[in-house]
Structure formats: C-alpha cells, structure tokens
Amino acid sequence: MTIFSKPLNPNELFRHQSSRRPLLVLIATVLILRSRLFKPFRNKSSSTPTYSQSELAIDAVHFPLVHATPGLGLPFVHQLRSLLRIVLPSLYTREALLLTAHSTFLVLRTVLSIAVARLDGRIVRDLVSADGKGFLTGLALWFALAIPSIYTNSMIRHLQSTLSLRFRTRLTRYIHDLYLSSAPYLRYYRVPLHGIDQYITADVDAWAESVAGIYGNLMKPSLDLLLFTSQLARSLGFRGTVLLFINYYITAKILRAVTPAFGRLAAVEARLEGEYRAGVGRVGRESEEVAFYDGGARERDILTRTYLRLIKHVNSIYKIRIAYEWTEDFVIKYLWSAAGYGLIAVPLLITRKRSRDAGVVDGKGKRGRNQKSEADGIVAARTETYISNRRLLLSLADAGGRLMYAYKDLQEVAGLTGRLYTLLSTLHNLPPLPLALSGDGDTFALKDVDICIPEDPLTSPNSPSPTPSHSLATTSKLQAHAEPIPPAPSLEATSSETLSGPNTTLVRALTLTLRPGMHLMITGSNGVGKTAVARVLAGLWAPGSRSTLRSSMCTDGTVARPVDDALTRPTDDADGRPGVFVIPQRPYHPTGSLLSQIIYPHSVSEFTASPAALSELEILLDAAHLGYLVDREGGWDAVKEWRDVLSGGEKQRLAMARLYYHRPKFAILDECTSAVSSDVEGQMYEHAKALGITLITISLRPSLTKYHTHILTLTGDGTGSWTFNRIATPRAHEGRGENGLATPPGESEPTAGGGERELTTEDTGAKYLARVLEEIRVLESRIEESREWEKRVRELGEELKAK
Ligand SMILES: Nc1ncnc2c1ncn2[C@@H]1O[C@H](COP(=O)(O)OP(=O)(O)OP(=O)(O)O)[C@@H](O)[C@H]1O
C-alpha cells in the first residue's frame, strides 16, 4: 500500500487517493459482507452433510493407526491436516467463506492499527505546533476511524465464534456417523477407548474453539509483526532494523528454552478430565444400586481420588506456567519496551545531533527570522515520529506477546489434535465384522464355530503393524471392497483391559441349525458362554474356528476365518419384519416418551408413517401384562426417566412388549424375564410363539424348557464342549419329570434339516454325564431353596399357634 511504502509524511495521510485506499477497501469489504452475495452460501451450507459408510471407509486412508504424539512435529501437521479435511472439506463451503471474511477483517485490523498510529502522531504534532485546524481535522479523522475499528473488532470475534461452531458441528457429525455405525462395524460397541464421551463432547468443543482461535491468534500478530516491522524499519534505518531482528531472535531463544510441553500437558489434562467425568456419570446412572449398597462414602472416595488426580495435574501445570509467564512478561513487556525506547532514541538522537551540527554551521552564516519557526517544525516532526513509532512499538510488543500466547495455544491444539486423531484413527481402523450368509432368509445356522472372547484389536500381537505404509486403515479399506471380508476381533466398549487371557475359547466347534418353529433354550452354569453364543448369533462377535487355513483371531491360538458358511442368519423381510431381535439381560430405555420405549429402535415418526396404530400397542401391552401402564404414566406421550420409574419386572415386561411390536422371525432372549413371575413368564413366551416368533432363550430356569423344542447345554467343563438335543415331549419323558432336562444317550432325534448334532451312545457318554451333573446341580440348588421355604412355613405355623 502506497501509504506505507513512503517514508512517514503525516500531511499525506488520508489526503491523497492512495492514502485513502485502506479505508475504501474496508468500506467495500463491509458492503460485500453485508450484501446478497453471501446469501446463497448461507442457505446452502446451513446443514452439514452426513457420511455414508462407504465414504467413511474411503476416508480411513487419511487416518492410519499411528501413535499420536502431542508435540509440534511433523506428525502433528499430518494429524491436523486430516482433521482439517473434515471441518474444511473444500473452498466452496461456508467455513471457507467465514475464514476468508475472518482473514480480511484481521488484515483490516492491522491496517487500521497502523492508520491509528499515524493519526496519533499527527494529532500530537499539530498540538505541539499549535495548528488548531490540523488538530480538529485529526480529531475528526480519529472518530471516523473509530467506526470501522470497532466494527472490525466485533466482526473478528463474531466470525471466530461462528467458525468454531461450524468446525464443531462438522466434526461432531462426522464422529457421530463413524462412531454410531451399524453392522458390520458396530464401532460404538467395539471401540477400545475409555471415556469416549469426553472425546466426543469436551475435546471436540475445545479443539474447534482452539483451532478457530489459533488462526486469528497466529495470523493477526504475525501480520502485525510483519507490517509494523516494515513500517518501523523505514524510520529506524538499517541499524535500527538489525537491532529489531536481534531483539526478536533473543526473545525467541529465551522463550523456547522456558516453554514447557503444553501439548502433552493438555492431552493428559483432557484424559484425567474424562476419567472424572465418567466417574460422575457412573454414579448418576447407577445411583439406585449405589444407594442400596449405601455406597455413597465409597463412591465419594473414588470420585475424590479421581478429582484430586486431575487437580494435582492442573496445579502442576499452573506451577510450570508461573516460571514461563514470568519470563514471558519480562521479555515481552519490559525487554521489548526497553529495546523499543533504545530504537526510537537512535534516529532521534542522531537527527538531533545532525540538526545541532547543521544549526552550528547555519548559525555562522544566516541567522534569520524564520529560524524559530524552523526549530518548531523540527520539534513537531520529531514528536510525531516519536509518538507514531512508540505506538507502533507498543503494538509490536503486544503482537509479540500474542504470538507467544499463540505458541502456547498451538501446543495445546497439538495435544487436543493428538487425542481426536487417536479417536478417529481407532474408529477407522476397527475392521468390519464378518458378514453372515443369508441362506433362505429363515434359517439360523452355526457350522463348526468356536465361540471365543475377542482380543483387543489395538494391542493384539496378531494385528497388522500400524505403520503408515501398511496401515490398518488401508487394510480395512480393502476389506470394505473385497469379498469375503476377513473377520474382525471385537470387544466391549469398556472392557479392553480384560480382553486377553490364556484361554479365551468358551465353546468349541459349535454346529447347529435352527428353522422357524425350532425354539432353542441355551443353558449351562454361570460364565460358560451362553451370552457369548448370543453375541455370535446376533453378529456382535465374529465366529471363530480352529482351522489352520484361517486368519488369526483368539488369543489362545484359535483362529477366525473368512465368512464362508460359518454363520447363517435370517434376513429382514421386505415388509420390515426383522430377521433377528435380541432382548438383552439388562433392560435398556432410551430417552423419550412411553411410546418410544415400545417401538425402540424405531422412531416416533417411523411409527406414525407405519400402518400400526396405538390401539394395537395397547393389545401388545396387555399381552405383556402392562395394560395399566399408559393410564398410570399419563399417556403415550409421557416422558420420564423410565429406568427409575419402572420396576425391575415391569422393565422386563416392557421389553417383551417391544419384542411383540417388532415381531421378528427369531428372538434371542437373554435371561430377559428373570424378574417376572413364572406364570406371567410362561404366558409371555406362549404369546411370542403365537405371534410366529421362534425363540432362542438363554436361561437357567428349567421351568422354561417346556416352551422350547431344543436345548443347547454348555457343559462348562473347561473344554468348550456342548450338547444339542431335541427336548422330549412329555410322553417321551414319561416318568422323568416335565422339564425333560436329562435326555439319555441315544434318545435325542436329529431334525429334518440335518444341522442338528445327533447324539450316539459312543460320542455322548462324556457329554451326557456332564449334562446330568449340571442337572443335579440345578436340582440341588432347588432342594436347598425348598429347605428355606420349609423353614419359613414352620416359622409361620409357630407364629399362628402363638396367637
Ligand atoms: N468382553 C469381554 N471381555 C472379556 N471377557 C469376557 C467378555 N465377555 C464375556 N467375557 C467372559 O466370557 C465368559 C462367558 O461370558 P458370558 O456372558 O457368555 O457368560 P454366561 O454364560 O452368559 O453367564 P451368565 O449366566 O452369568 O450370564 C465369562 O467368563 C466372561 O467373563
């Protein structure tokens, strides 16, 4: 700009066309920003996109699984670029537009600062030279500059917050799409990171805010430094400029030496914050259980310990900061100011000496009338130079200070970037679970499947090396496009530490075929792997096999295989009838109305779009013995904390009503009626069967056997053995008791499908024994219970007699 390319000449300021250019640029920018030009952008980008699974799979290549170091090196640049791709996908987005507007205002602010510095000098000069007219003009210009200045400042703040919000929204949407993926990824179920809520809420927010801020915090002071230095260099001359740069160099050296690793500190702080947050969340969620155990004091201890760990860390950051901030304050405020005074003094003193010398020479020859006015002019010009340069130097010191803060902020951004990159690369690098075969759409079959506890995909020695050249991201991308897909290890979200063990195979070579009407009961003692079988059937865990041809999976050497015929699952019907529906052990209640409890995972809008009516739901509730619920709770739209409002049995009955609503072909019921009385339980089972639902029930209650046609017993003898028998009809079991638990060798019948294992006398001896032992154990526990009842009956009798 011409105004700054010339040496300082206050009279030129704003007078020439070129001098007015910054103001014209400013006014034009303001007009453009407020004009209709931006309206199409506003409307087009008001909503952020959703990402399909295939888009996400392609994106995985940008998130190779590398150890995220929270420093400012090359990995940080790569990680930041990967994240910026999400929040700033192209130049034709609202974010890019906001960034351009933000940058423009930042440049304008610097331009205005220089104009203010010049004007400042001019006003003081006019004052010193008693130029009233010039002074008043300067004052008028001062107010004229104030308007764009304050507008610019508030726009910078506004654009920065809007940008931060847009970044947060884009990143959150991306993470939601990635994290809440359905099969075959099920990332929300398998992600092995602790405190995931902290990552998705606080970390994303803090990152978006810091990144939007860091741009301004870095760009503005850098621009200031550049322009102010160039301006100063003109009046300071070569020597002054060199001194200025020496000053910068020394500052950078000192501050670099005393700057702690803010990035690492910020990452640790975020982790500890997450742990504390998770602790508070757990107590809130499980408050009733805690209250029953009267565990308040214990929970307080746990939370206090977690909190103190966090606070200790934050305190240590504060302490580390003290030394840094002392140095920073000293260097930026005092050292720079002192250097500034020195630099201003150089031209002034030199000019003064020269002019004094010139005065001596002049004095000899021509002492005239205009001598006094010339001296006044020199003083006025000198004052102006001093005021302008001093203002520029103060701004320079301020810019330097902000740049130092920005360096600290940058390190914190590095810490947060590292954490978010870890989250995204972990989510991206969970390989898909094997897809099941669909068969005829109505069959459930397992063929020679080992049920084993999956290993941690991130710590497994069998995982491909997480290097950029052969990253898991690349693997999973290939998997997404290739058939068959190699199976993946899976794990529960919060249990990554418990995933390895010497023997993780729970059931070996499980083979069974279920067709509609073949109601299966899975039984066996606690911890033998009943729910694990359900997880494989439901597709949450990959089926394993001991075949040596197949890729590795379990930690005990058992290997998983590509999908061939390991698992066949019933498919959903075109009319929306699901192939499989699982009711888990622990009831789940989403937030929302009573209606949304029944129809979950459908939404209310899906329900209203479907032909189903509320009256039909009332019938379903009646069948689940919950007919009174709608009136009691104040209608279908009542919104409550259902987890607390409903009793244990009611929650389980409500889950059964949910099952009736979805009416799947197969239902996996994992001890989901344990709190319901036997008679109601029986009626609910019969109703499910009447709706055409084939039951796969996990239970330890022998009384439930009669609602099933087949029984899978996991023997729990440590070898992973099992038996799969047809349950004898009461006639076949004459004299053996109604539940028909013990089917002797040779009595079980294979089904027509042939998937069922036929028991022969030779191969079932050991299994039969195991089953009988299991039955003895069950019956013994019942006898034990009956003793308690007898005792109670006696007590009641005695009580009655006494009265
Ligand atoms: N995600 C996991 N990580 C580590 N171990 C697991 C995991 N899930 C299950 N297990 C272990 O696998 C074994 C079988 O668990 P599972 O839940 O299938 O038992 P279960 O037969 O259903 O028992 P119960 O009748 O008590 O419900 C248990 O020893 C359990 O500790």
Automatic annotation (TrEMBL):
Q: Which residues form the ABC transporter domain?
A: 491-741
Question: Is Ribosomal protein a UniProt keyword of this protein?
Answer: no
Any GO BP: fatty acid beta-oxidation
Signal sequence bounds: none
Q: Which Pfam families match?
A: ABC_membrane_2, ABC_tran
Tell me the keywords, alphabetical order.
ATP-binding, Membrane, Nucleotide-binding, Transmembrane, Transmembrane helix, Transport
Low complexity bias locations: 457-472
Cited InterPro entries: AAA+_ATPase, ABC1_TM_dom, ABC1_TM_sf, ABC_transporter-like_ATP-bd, ABC_transporter-like_CS, ABC_transporter_sub-D, P-loop_NTPase
Instruction: Note the Gene3D superfamilies from the entry.
Output: P-loop containing nucleotide triphosphate hydrolases
**Where along the chain is composition biased (Polar residues)?**
492-502
Under Gene Ontology molecular function, one entry of this record is: ABC-type transporter activity
**UniProt keyword annotation of Transcription present:** no
Question: Record's Gene Ontology CC terms?
Answer: peroxisomal membrane
Q: Region entry Disordered: which residue ranges?
A: 455-475, 483-502, 733-765
The entry assigns this protein to a family as follows: Belongs to the ABC transporter superfamily. ABCD family. Peroxisomal fatty acyl CoA transporter (TC 3.A.1.203) subfamily.
Q: Which PANTHER family match?
A: ATP-BINDING CASSETTE SUB-FAMILY D MEMBER 1, ATP-BINDING CASSETTE, SUB-FAMILY D MEMBER
Write the protein's name: ABC transporter transmembrane region 2-domain-containing protein
